[in-house]
Amino acid sequence: MRLLERIILVVALGTLLGSSGCARKAGPSYDPFLRFPATAQWAWDDALNRFPADPAIEELNIRTLARETITAGLAARGYTLAPQGGKVDFRVHYHVGLRKVIKKDSVEGYGSLSLSLVDASTNRNAWVGFIEADVDVSNSEAERRKRLQKEVNKMLKDFPPSQ
Known about the structure:
alpha/beta, six-stranded mixed sheet, 6 strands
């Protein structure tokens, strides 16, 4: 496992384990020594994206919804997706996780999304955000998109960090 992936895993687990027992969690962590400009360009680092290998999840179109809501959330904060082959300030990747909690009379599903920005010039992990929310697979795609955008916006509420 590459060093960057280990750092992301440690930060994501630390965020998850350090959070309260609420049903929903959100919170960022960032490198205070890196500069976050008001506007920047970024590109997907698809080699680092992680997604559960579950055909039932693929049917929910979560991969596309995650990419679209992250792109919109960053764009609303001045960080735009760079044209193919263009100069980038950050490389962006995400991890999607799912878990089930089996209770006496029901099964509850939870989804998590961690988002990472890596500074392209230094290759340092610049910013990591994490959200977890309950999942209802009976929601329509439009409802899932709206809910995911709300959660991504919550995660990005204070992005870029003021320094």
